[in-house]
Design brief:
globular; four-stranded antiparallel β-sheet; alpha/beta; seven-stranded mixed β-sheet; 14 helices; Aspartate Aminotransferase, domain 1; Aspartate Aminotransferase, domain 2; binds pyridoxal-5'-phosphate
């Protein structure tokens, strides 16, 4: 089976994790602090808070943005369901925005259509690593007094206006799940612009405790922590951070390889795109994708054809998967009042994620392309 993704982990990650274990410090400690510092150095973010997942990073971002019960938050339905679920964690209501016909991201036009008087914040996703039109969206959010949160779960290593995603907005949330391009097993990072907000969220990550574990460890006398508000345990471990530090050092190589593999797919499938049979992912004018997932869209046949093509690929040993889900099409969120989301539904039922991983060979890619072409011919 050619897998959809295979994390690029090696001896350096194994050694780093073992060193953390041997040090005896396995929970959040000096390696987490070093990982956060390195993340800031590479992305240009002012503050970085390592957490247990992107989902918990989004929860903290919403708290930091001051979103509360009774508020509404615009989100793309076309995203992994965590983007929508996080809004419920603060008691607010998600409002679904549609996406662009040509790219799986919200735009100013689709956000405008979703806006209600209760909206206080917007979560946009750089879906499958493809950068959204952030500058225009940020200007629109400023005009409407809405806090902008970037769900960059898939977008470590993608760029906007020549800079890595991570420092463009007040809050940017990342995932390090193994399905992403940089992994710590489980894990996430929240970058924050405001120092006071960052300090509060850093405390909320560990039960809103007034002193960190490192400070307690280094203290020579009795330390009595205080707890000013209700916090959470959203910590990352030092074992994870040790792996993350090695992975950050490999980020440029990871992205270069993914972009080269994406370019091969684009060249090999260009005739089908030109004929209008497929929509292929391409960089927008304002940024570069990390191609976290290479998602194609079948331009005819709807869900039954997509599912048949997927089944044929899997039968052929190709670990392809459905492209991008839509939260409003799942039972958990189907009852929520919403406007029409035609482009979201089109993407959700017609997209396919093709295998793309660092150690993928030319032969692997040729096998995927041959199987895809055969499946498309067999399923007209
Ligand atoms: C767009 C998006 N947001 C959030 C998440 C959740 O990330 P995590 O599993 O790290 O909580 C994912 C994971 O797939 C995602 O794709």
């Amino acid at each position: 089976m050619i897998p959809i993704i295979k994390p690029w982990l090696g001896e350096a990650e194994a050694d780093a994790a073992a060193a953390a274990v041997r040090s005896g410090w396995v929970a959040q400690g000096p390696r987490v602090a070093a990982f956060e510092a390195q993340f800031c150095a590479q992305t240009g973010a002012a503050h970085a808070i390592a957490v247990s997942s992107c989902t918990t990073a989004l929860h903290l971002a919403l708290i930091g943005a001051g979103v509360r019960a009774g508020d509404a938050v615009i989100v793309p339905s076309l995203s992994f369901i965590a983007t929508t679920n996080a809004v419920a964690y603060v008691g607010a209501a998600p409002v679904f925005a549609d996406v662009d016909p040509g790219a799986p991201n919200v735009t100013v036009r689709t956000l405008e259509a979703a806006l209600t008087p209760a909206c206080t914040a917007v979560i946009i996703a750089h879906q499958v690593g493809m950068p959204a039109e952030l500058a225009a969206i940020a200007a629109w959010c400023a005009d409407h007094n809405l806090t902008l949160i970037e769900d960059a779960a898939c977008a470590i290593g993608s760029t906007l206006d020549g800079r890595l995603i991570g420092a463009h907005s007040p809050f940017v949330a990342f995932s390090f799940h193994p399905r992403k391009v940089l992994t710590t097993g489980e894990g996430g990072m929240l970058t924050v612009r405001d120092p006071v907000v960052a300090d509060r969220l850093r405390k909320l990550r560990q039960h809103a405790m007034s002193v960190s574990a490192v400070a307690r460890h280094e203290a020579t006398g009795v330390v009595l922590p205080t707890f000013q508000e209700v916090g959470y345990n959203y910590r990352m471990t030092d074992i994870q951070a040790a792996i993350g530090l090695v992975q950050l050092g490999k980020l440029d190589a990871i992205i270069a390889r993914r972009r080269a593999l994406a370019a091969s797919y684009q060249a090999a499938l260009a005739d089908l795109a030109k004929a209008g049979a497929l929509l292929l992912p391409v960089d927008p004018p304002w940024g570069r994708s990390n191609y976290q997932t290479f998602v194609i869209r079948l331009e005819s046949g709807g869900q039954s054809r997509r599912d048949a093509v997927l089944a044929a690929l899997i039968d052929d040993g190709i670990g392809a998967g459905p492209g991008i889900m839509a939260a409003h099409m799942q039972p958990a969120w189907s009852a929520l009042a919403r406007g029409p989301l035609p482009q979201t539904e089109r993407w959700a039922v017609s997209s396919i994620a093709l295998p793309l991983y660092h150690t993928m060979t030319q032969q692997d890619q040729a096998d995927v392309i041959t199987a895809l072409r055969a499946a498309l011919v067999a399923t007209p």
